[in-house]
Amino acid sequence: MQYLAICEDDLLFHLMRNVASKQAEVLFLVQDAAVAKRIKRQGGKVRQGDLLKEDTYKRIKLHHVDQAIVFVREADFQDRVCRLLRTLDKSLSIVALTPDKNGAKEPEDSLFSQLQLPDIFEEFCATRLLDTLNRKKVERIRSLFSEKKIHILVQHDPDPDAIGSALALRELLGRNRITTPIVTFGEVTRPENLAMIRFLDIQIDRITYEDLHKDGAQLALVDVQPPYFDKPLGRVDLVVDHHPKRTPFKARFTDLRTGYGATSTIFTEYLRAIGMEPSQRLATALLYGIKTDTLFLERGSILADLSAFTFLYPFANKAMITRIERPALPREDLEALGRALSRLQLDDGVAVIHMGEINREDVIPQMAEFCLHIEGVEWGVVSGLVKDRVVISVRNVGYVRSAGDIMKKLYDDIGSAGGHRAMAKAVIPLDRFKERYGEVSEKVIRQAIVPMIVERDEQTAHG
């Protein structure tokens, strides 16, 4: 291809020489002789002439040009240049670069297009600016840690996003599982997550509060924040998370991005910024973390999640992810799901299920996700008793709804509650739940949650 770049100064030359010149030949046309000299001195192919005279373009032989790019700041002048080009060549593709919508007017011409400079800047420069910022953050993160042991702490029942993020942090620090173990106060219970750590050979150790800082060990939290835990954690060196900040906390360095769909996206940006190519194992873990937390980019995701997913995809083992997603489901879980379905109640598009006493907490969000596959269901609200705690999981199919706000408003003062627009969770001590509501039942939970969901949906519809 051959481009004709028509411009007033050498700015367009600097923008194009490292992009278009690698793909095609670019001839620059300028009106000022001094500008032409500067472009030529820097290795550019340039012609100089009056931009509004036919002879200038006849000498160039427009029929050899595949596309003309016009960058003239004065709107009327640029419009006249574009009209002259079209008069001279009816089949020439023309792109006008304008500072804003007040630039060249787009006629009824399928071979003419207009690009705004802010859009071009965002498209080609935003990623590089973000990489610069993330490189600085990686340098800061690495400076936090000495040669001492580092505990990477995740939530009680870590999910793929937490596991992938923890693995990425260890890789960024250049550490191993002995010097930098991934730890939890709970255990991995969900079948898919167990399959993930088995297939990817990821070890997650159980730890106590007393051992967090044993022998001077440092502490990093990923995909979780200090207030999530029942007891103080002592000095926290690092927190990287995508969940909303519910209550204040102290940490030496914090990177919270509540607009992101997954913490794994943040760590992928770190890797990309420092030019670190992920191993197949790490790429698979991060890709699966993004996929599960965003429901394959359908829920709560933004362009950053898509960009991270695209970056990781060539490195990941997709066949292994398929194996992880189809683990054996224990019989008792199937029975719990069956009993729950038999009690399904549907009201204003809201499916509410109370599963009673169950052994595994992860069955509750599984059931809430499953509810969204039922015809007519837009919200899934599933609760259960796990030992001495009431666990409530909420999911919805929308993107502007307020699952996290609803749960926080209802239950955060008697337990731990919050989440995102399309997914949320509450964990309430049994005695405190009974103190407020008298009993734990589907009826009580329905009466509390459904009116708020209906009210929010009506506000959204009329907003």
Task: Tell me what the structure shows.
The chain is of the alpha/beta class. It folds into three domains: 2-115, NAD(P)-binding Rossmann-like Domain (Rossmann fold, 3-Layer(aba) Sandwich), CATH 3.40.50.720; 145-325, Alpha-Beta Complex (inorganic pyrophosphatase (n-terminal core)), CATH 3.90.1640.10; 331-462, Roll (Diaminopimelate Epimerase, Chain A, domain 1), CATH 3.10.310.30. The longest helix is centred in the N-terminal third of the chain and has 28 residues, at 117-144. The protein is elongated, with a radius of gyration of 29 Å. It has helices spanning 11-16, 33-41, 54-60, 75-88, 117-144, 160-173, 191-199, 263-273, 280-294, 303-312, 318-325, 331-342, 363-371, 403-411, 430-437, 442-462; strands at 2-7, 25-30, 45-48, 67-71, 93-98, 112-116, 150-153, 182-184, 204-206, 218-222, 238-241, 253-256, 345-347, 350-357, 379-386, 389-396, 416-419, 423-429. A six-stranded parallel beta sheet has the order 3-2-1-4-5-6, sandwiched between helices. The mean pLDDT is 87.
